[in-house]
Write a structure and sequence with these properties.
There is one protein chain. With 373 residues, this protein is mainly α. It has 15 helices and two strands. Strands 1-2 form a two-stranded antiparallel ribbon. It is globular, with a radius of gyration of 23 Å.
Length: 373
C-alpha cells in the first residue's frame, strides 16, 4: 500500500489519511488546495508553523515535542508544455538504475558461486570441528544462528529489506529529521528532488500498520519468489520494481495533475506478488483475516489490477493506485518477457567482468549458474 496523502505526511500523525489537511496545523489555504510541497506565504509576524505530534502522545509527550514545520519548496504544478519534460530525468534514472541493478546482481551471482567453490572444503572442516566441540547451552549467539538457519533462503533474503524499512520508520519519529524525510523519502513529481526519492520512498513508511502489512506480504511471498528467481535476481527485480512503479506514478500524476507525496514499499511488493501469481496461477491464496475463503493466484492478480486501474481512472487518493498498477504490470511483464530479455542475456556482461577480474584470462566459469526461472 503506497500512501498518497498530504494530510498524513504534513501533520506527521498516525490518524486517518483521508482527513482533510485543513484540519491539521495552520497551513496556508493555497497549500491545502494544491496538496504539494511548497513554501508557505510569509506573513508579517515571524511565527513558525508547528507539526502536530503523533496520536500516541500518552507515552511520548515528553520526547516528541512540537517541532517547526519544514519549509516547503515553492513549486507550482508544471504547466502543460513542460510538465512531461520534467519526467526526462526520472526516466533516465529509472533505465540507468534498472540496468545497474541487474548488472550488479549478475556480478553478485558470479562472485557468490566462485566463493562457494573456493570455500567448500573450509565449510566441510568447519562442520566437522563443530561436531567435535561440546554443545553450548543458553548461548544467545547460538540461538540466533539456529533461528537464522531455520529460515528459508527467501526469508533470509528479505530480512535485510525489512530491517531497512524498520530503520527508516524510526527515522520518521525523530523531529530533527522530518524535513529531510519529507524531501528524500517521499516521491512527488512536483518536488525539486525527483530521482533519489524514487528509490528511497520504497523503504519509507510513516504508519506502523502500513509497514507491518507490507512487510507481512513480502515475507509471505519471499520463499516462492526467491526459489523461483534466485536471491540475486530477486533483489534486482525488487529494487528495479520500486523505481519503475514510482516512475509510473509520476507519469499518472503528471498526466492528471493530481500532485502529491507518496511513500511505501507496495509498488515493489506488487511486482513480487504479480510475478508469483503469473508463474503459479493455480496456487491457492487466502486473505489473512478471512482464511476460510480461498481463490487462485490468477484471480487474485486480476482483481488487484482491476481495482488499481479503477483507482487510477477515478482518482482515488487513499492509496497511490498508479504505483500499485505499475508494480503489478512490471511483475507480469518480467515473468513473461523480461527474464528472457534481461537475465538470460547476462552472459556477455559476466564474461567481461570475469576477464577484467582475472586480467583477461580465458573462461567464464560460474557465469550461468543458478537463479533461473
Amino acid at each position: 500500500m503506497a500512501w498518497r496523502s498530504c494530510a498524513l505526511l504534513l501533520r506527521l500523525s498516525g490518524g486517518d489519511v483521508s482527513r482533510s489537511s485543513a484540519r491539521g496545523p495552520r497551513w496556508p489555504h493555497s497549500f491545502q488546495q494544491r496538496c504539494g510541497f511548497r513554501k508557505a506565504t510569509k506573513k508579517p509576524e515571524s511565527k513558525k508553523e508547528e507539526l502536530l505530534p503523533p496520536h500516541t502522545e500518552s507515552s511520548e509527550a515528553v520526547v516528541q515535542r512540537r517541532t517547526p514545520a519544514p519549509h516547503m519548496e515553492h513549486q507550482a504544478p508544471p504547466s502543460s508544455p513542460r510538465s512531461f519534460s520534467r519526467l526526462l530525468r526520472p526516466l533516465v534514472f529509472t533505465v540507468g538504475f534498472t540496468g545497474c541493478s541487474f548488472g550488479s546482481a549478475a556480478i553478485w551471482q558470479y562472485e557468490s558461486l566462485k566463493f562457494r567453490v573456493q570455500s567448500y572444503f573450509d565449510e566441510v572442516r568447519a562442520d566437522w570441528l563443530e561436531k567435535l566441540r561440546p554443545q553450548k547451552r543458553g548461548d544467545f549467539r547460538k540461538e540466533i544462528n539456529q533461528w537464522w538457519n531455520s529460515l528459508s533462503e527467501g526469508q533470509r533474503t528479505v530480512t535485510g529489506i525489512i530491517a531497512a524499512n524498520a530503520i527508516v520508520f524510526c527515522c520518521w519519529r525523530i523531529p530533527s529529521l522530518q524535513r529531510s524525510m519529507i524531501k528524500y523519502f517521499t516521491s512527488n513529481p512536483a518536488s525539486n528532488s525527483v530521482c533519489s526519492p524514487m528509490l528511497l520512498s520504497t523503504f519509507s513508511h510513516f504508519s506502523f500498520f502500513h509497514m507491518a502489512a507490507n512487510m507481512y506480504v513480502l515475507w509471505s511471498f519471499s520463499s516462492s519468489a526467491v526459489s523461483m528467481l534466485g536471491r540475486e535476481q530477486f533483489m534486482a527485480v525488487y529494487l528495479s520494481a520500486g523505481v519503475v512503479s514510482t516512475f509510473f506514478s509520476y507519469v499518472c500524476k503528471t498526466a492528471t495533475g493530481r500532485f502529491g507525496p507518496s511513500l511505501g514499499a507496495s509498488g515493489a511488493i506488487m511486482t513480487v506478488l504479480a510475478a508469483v501469481c503469473t508463474k503459479m496461477p493455480e496456487a491457492k491464496l487466502a486473505i489473512i483475516f478471512l482464511p476460510m475463503f480461498t481463490f487462485t493466484a490468477a484471480n487474485a492478480l486480476k482483481a488487484i489490477i482491476a481495482m488499481d486501474t479503477a483507482g487510477v481512472v477515478m482518482g482515488w487518493k487513499f492509496f497511490d493506485h498508479a504505483a500499485h498498477l505499475g508494480g503489478a504490470l512490471f511483475g507480469v511483464w518480467y515473468i513473461m518477457f523480461g527474464h528472457e530479455l534481461i537475465w538470460k542475456n547476462r552472459e556477455p556482461f559476466v564474461k567481461l567482468w570475469h576477464d577484467l577480474r582475472t586480467g583477461g584470462g580465458s573462461g567464464g566459469g560460474g557465469a550461468d549458474g543458478g537463479g533461473a526461472v
